[in-house]
Design goal:
The chain has 242 residues and is mainly alpha-helical. The protein has two domains: 151 residues, Helix Hairpins (Orthogonal Bundle); 59 residues, no CATH class. 78% of the residues lie in helices and 5% in strands. Helix 1 packs antiparallel against helix 2.
Length: 242
Amino acid sequence: MQQIIEKLLILQDRDRKLLRVTQELAHIGPERESLKAKAASTQGSLDAAKLRVKQIESERKRLELDVEAKKTQIERYANQQLLTRKNEEYKALAHEIEMAKEGITKIEDQEIVLMEQAEAAQKEVVRATAEAAAAKKLVDDQIGVINDREVSLKKDQAELQTGREQLASAVDEPTRNRYERIFKSKGENVVVGIEHSSCGGCHMRLPAQIVTSCRGEAEIVTCSNCGRILYFSRDMDLQGGD
């Protein structure tokens, strides 16, 4: 029976390694997507900065068109003044001309503000471009490392799986099935030792009969509380502490 326990312990060690590799592989995808999200974030900031520049330029062109429209109005009003002989109509046209000139002044003030905003926006584009480029290079390098690690882990996983099948085949089918059921339900601690007369898995105190049976090594003994497979080695302390 001791031989079976030894085989199960070896199998359990292999399964633990396989489980850790599988868990690490499971984190590769999310880690890679997280890095891509960081790069996308800096690229989004750059796109927003470029959009701001375009918006300012569009607003500037609109103001230029408004100025041209008011200049055309002024020219039309001036021509109408030349043709009118009525003093009131002349004054009304003069008022319109003055209003148009004031409008042009206001627009020119807005253009100055836009020029300042455009300069700041261009600086932001330069900054965001450098940041996005640096972030992309860093992320590309990190993803390269992750991809290499993924390849290595998959290789380890395949080798562990192949070795695992060989180890599992060395255990009789009923015992193997029992082991695999416990592994699935309890996790990686399936075959556990006895310490201070307690189960090494659930740490509950074991009945004296189970401890005695385990020492006898005549059959597979399981914990009466959690169902894990128990084993005993000579260096274990079977007696409970005071």
